[in-house]
Amino acid sequence: MGTEGHSRRVIAGRYRLEERLGRGGMSVVWRATDQLLGRSVAVKELPYDDTLSAAQARRQRDRTLREARALAQLSHPHIIVVHDVVEDDERPYIVMELIEGGSLADRLAHRGPVGAAEAARIGIALLGALGAAHAAGVLHRDLKPDNVLLETGTDRVVLTDFGIAQVAGTPTLTENGSFVGSPEYTAPERMSGARTGPESDLWSLGALLCAALSGETPFHRDSLGGILHAVVVGDIQPP
């Protein structure tokens, strides 16, 4: 059970949640302390949502556990490291290494596009990360600037958030058959429901690098329908 100590929640009797680092569509990431080992970590929490049915809550839990299993298979300097998976109040938490620094999306929002040399450095790092994932039978399927961390004080680029990854030999989770992902960074074959493979992640990497160099992808439009049309049938105009 989670406990409260000095206004900070402790989960699984070990991890003290201290500061919210970010919030996505389905999760919250906390800066935390592993009180057993005395080290700082990042903890990904799936917040409780009482509007979900039992089946929907189970799918969310399964997605979190699948992300942990996918990451546990991978060992690469440019892929986030998972330390532990725990459950507290019937909710799963993923305990990961703490990366001091923001995302590539933060970098683009605050300082604008990167230069060609920096884009190449980021691209090479992510190619290495994707190569290791693909060799292990893991497709990331959600490569975008928000899921790329840039560690402060080093040259390290870190791929994170394998929440909708596809692992060879396991079923793909969806929400009632709906599309899950980030449209501007999703390969057209996946958007149209066709078979996907490593090439779909590489397509997403190309879109990400276009955004890094120009500030937005070639598929940026004012509506979701416009984005979908641009991805599937539009002419690509790189920056």
Give a brief outline of the structure:
The protein is of the alpha+beta class. Helix content is 32%, strand content 23%.
Topology of helices and strands:
Blueprint: E1 3-5, E2 8-11, E3 15-23, E4 28-34, E5 39-45, H1 54-72, E6 82-88, E7 91-97, H2 104-111, H3 116-135, E8 138-139, E9 148-150, E10 157-159, E11 166-167, H4 188-191, H5 198-214, H6 224-232
Antiparallel strand pairs: 1-2, 2-3, 3-4, 4-5, 5-7, 6-7, 8-11, 9-10
Task: Describe this structure as you would to a colleague.
- The protein is α+β, with helices and mostly antiparallel strands and 239 residues long.
- The chain folds into two domains: 3-97, Phosphorylase Kinase, domain 1; 104-232, Transferase(Phosphotransferase) domain 1 (Transferase(Phosphotransferase), domain 1), CATH 1.10.510.10.
- The chain is built from six helices and eleven strands.
- Helix 3 (116-135) runs antiparallel to helix 5 (198-214).
- The model is unreliable at 1-6 and 173-177 (pLDDT under 50).
